Amino acid sequence: MFNILEKIDAKKVGIFAAGVLFGTAGIQILSSKDAKKVYTHGTAAVLRAKECVMKTVTNVQENAEDIYAEARQLNEERANQEPEFEDESEAYKEVTEEGREI
To answer: What pLDDT digit, counting tens, does each position of 28-82 carry?
Structure first.
C-alpha cells in the first residue's frame, strides 16, 4: 500500500497544485470589480470602433451606388446616340461634286 506513494511524482503533483492555485486566483481576478471595469471599457471601445467602421462602409457603399448610376446613365446615352456610319463600307465611299459615288 505504501508503494503507491512512492510511485507518485512530486514534480507532477506540484505542477498540478500550482495550476489549481493559479486557476482559482485567475477566476477571482477575472470576476473582480476592477476587471469588470476593464471589460466595460474594452467593450465600449469595440462598439465605438464598430460605429466608425460602419460609417465608413456606408460612405463607400453610397459612393459605389453613385458611380454605378452614373455609369449606367453614360451607357444609356451612348446607346441612344446614332452611329456616324451604319456600315463601314459607307465610310470609304467618295462622292463627286455631282453627287455620284466613285
So the answer is: 888 888 889 999 999 999 999 999 999 999 999 999 999 999 999 999 999 888 6
Strand partners, 101: 95
pLDDT digits (tens, 9 = 90+) for 8-28: 777 888 898 899 888 888 888
DSSP string, the chain: -THHHHHS-HHHHHHHHHHHHHHHHHHHHHTSHHHHHHHHHHHHHHHHHHHHHHHHHHHHHHHHHHHHHHHHHHHHHHHHSPPS-SSHHHHT--B-TTS-B-
What φ, ψ does residue 95 adopt, rounded to 5°? -115, 135
- List the beta bridge partners of residue 95: 101
